[in-house]
Write a structure and sequence with these properties.
By secondary structure, the chain is α/β, with parallel strands linked by helices. It has ten helices and 13 strands. Helix 1 crosses helix 8, helix 6 packs across helix 7 and helix 8 packs antiparallel against helix 9. The radius of gyration is 18 Å and the shape is globular.
Length: 298
C-alpha cells in the first residue's frame, strides 16, 4: 500500500490569453478541478495500477464531498476527516510559459491531527509519501511525523517531497534539515531550486551528496535537463523536450510514477525514465491530473 498524507484541495486554474488589463478584463481559461499535492500523488498511484490511500482532512461542505467522491472514483482509499473549516482551495495562475503561481488557502487540510490517525490507515509494510506542505503547519506536521514513525515501526518506508522553494525558505533551511533528521526518509524528492537551497550548492552532483546525509536515495529534478538520482550509485536520465502548457502537478505525477516503478523492483534508471515521461506528459495539459494514455507514457 502506498499512502499519501496531506492536502486535498480545489484548484481554480486561471490562464489569461493576454496580459491582464488593470480595471478591465481579458479572455482566458478558467477551470475548477480537484487537486492538492498529496491527493494528486494518490490519484496518479492509483491510475498506475498500485493501491493508494490518502490521509487528510476536508471541510464539512460541498467541496469536501466533491473531493471525497472524486478520489473514490479514482480508486483511492480515503481517510478524510471532516473538520469545521472550509475545504482547502488554491488559485493557480498560469502564465504564457506554463509556469504557475499559487495563492493558497489550505483551510481544513492543515487541521488533520495526530489523534486522528488510526492503525488501519498505515498497514504493515506501507510506504508513506509526505509532501513538505504537510510539514510546515501544525497540527498536520505532527500528524505527518507520527505517521512516518508508525510506518517505519511496521516495517514500512517513508518519502518526503520538498514541494516548493518559497515555503521552504520561509520555514528555514536548518529547521527543515532538522525535521528530515527526525523523519529519516528513505527517499527525498526535490526540484533544482529546492535541492540547491537545502544543500547550499547549485551543482547537482555535489549537492546530492550533501542531501544524501538526510536520505539514502535522493532525486534531484532538473526540469528539461532531466533528473539525477543518487542512491548506492548515481544515475542520470536526460530531459524530454515538450511544449509546456501548465507545470501544476508535474512533481506529484513524477513522484507517483517513480514510487510505483521503484517499489515494483524496477532499476533506478528505469524508474527515473518512467517518472520523467509521465511528468513531461502532464505539463502538456491544463491541470494536475489530465487524462492520459498511461500505456503510452510507461
Amino acid at each position: 500500500m502506498i499512502v499519501a498524507l496531506g492536502d486535498a484541495a480545489l484548484d481554480l486554474f486561471v490562464a489569461p490569453d493576454l496580459d491582464a488589463i488593470e480595471g478591465s478584463d481579458v479572455t482566458g481559461a478558467v477551470r475548477v478541478l480537484p487537486g492538492g499535492s498529496a491527493a494528486n500523488f494518490a490519484v496518479w498511484v492509483s491510475r498506475l495500477g498500485a493501491r493508494s490511500t490518502l490521509i487528510g482532512a476536508v471541510g464539512d461542505d460541498y467541496a469536501g464531498d466533491f473531493m471525497r467522491a472524486d478520489l473514490e472514483r479514482e480508486g483511492v482509499l480515503t481517510h478524510l476527516r471532516r473538520v469545521p473549516v472550509p475545504t482547502a482551495a488554491i488559485a493557480v495562475l498560469v502564465d504564457a510559459r506554463g509556469e504557475r503561481t499559487m495563492i493558497t488557502n489550505r483551510g481544513a487540510a492543515t487541521h488533520f491531527a495526530p489523534a486522528m490517525l488510526e492503525p488501519q490507515m498505515l498497514p504493515p509494510g506501507c510506504h508513506v509519501h509526505i509532501p513538505a506542505y504537510s510539514l510546515f503547519v501544525e497540527p498536520l506536521a505532527a500528524a505527518a511525523i507520527a505517521a512516518a514513525a508508525r510506518a517505519r515501526a511496521g516495517g514500512g518506508t517513508v518519502a518526503v517531497d520538498t514541494s516548493s522553494v518559497g515555503p521552504l525558505r520561509a520555514f528555514g533551511r536548518e529547521r527543515f534539515l532538522r525535521l528530515l533528521a527526525d523523519l529519516m526518509p528513505d527517499l527525498l524528492f526535490a526540484n533544482h531550486a529546492e535541492a540547491a537551497f537545502l544543500s547550499g550548492i547549485e551543482d547537482p552532483e555535489a549537492g546530492s551528496l550533501i542531501l544524501q546525509r538526510h536520505a539514502p536515495l535522493v532525486l534531484w529534478k532538473l526540469g528539461a535537463d532531466g533528473v539525477l538520482g543518487r542512491g548506492e550509485r548515481p544515475a542520470r536520465v536526460p530531459g524530454l523536450a515538450v511544449p509546456v502548457r501548465d507545470s501544476t502537478g508535474a512533481g506529484d505525477a513524477f513522484a507517483a510514477a517513480f514510487t510505483v516503478a521503484h517499489r515494483s523492483g524496477a532499476a533506478l534508471e528505469t524508474a527515473l525514465a518512467r517518472a520523467n515521461r509521465l511528468a513531461a506528459a502532464v505539463v502538456r495539459h491544463m491541470g494536475a491530473r489530465p487524462r492520459l494514455d498511461l500505456k503510452e507514457e510507461n
